[in-house]
Description:
Number of helices: 6
Mean pLDDT: 93
Order of helices and strands: EEHEEHHHHH
CATH superfamily of the largest domain: P-loop containing nucleotide triphosphate hydrolases
Amino acid sequence: MNEQVKIRVDNLNLHYGSFQALYDINVDLLANRVTALIGPSGCGKSSFLRTINRLNELIEGTQTSGQIYLDNEAIYDKDLDVVSLRKKVGMVFQKPSVFPMSIFDNVAYGPRIHGVKDRYRLDEIVEKSLKAANLWNEVSDRLRDSAARLSGGQQQRLVIARVLAVNLR
Length: 169
């Protein structure tokens, strides 16, 4: 089987001010594979993940060196469109952040801001996304209910469905 490198990390270092959080990270992440980052609290797992979509840049005093390539494109290139990168590299955090709206509207949010207006198409995207996140059977009869009323685990799966929905548009 020919395995394609999706993300290549070369000599990645990350500093928060004078504190160095990541040291010379070199790793290839393969397409269509599951990769687990395992380690104790505070060891840099989340910091590393945030480097992949450049979220660390939003933290004052952060400095990154080295390079990350997504589909062979250098993501720290000064001309790279960061918004476009973040559309490709979504993140689901441990504590889910559902939007203050219905279950349906949470999942349909991304496709809508990308121009999907057709109600039938939105219904289809929401159903497919919720099924892919293993949530459809639990919420299909209450899509108009507030997403905040879901359990913590259901909210996590809803956020995953919201990310998946953007790819189905």
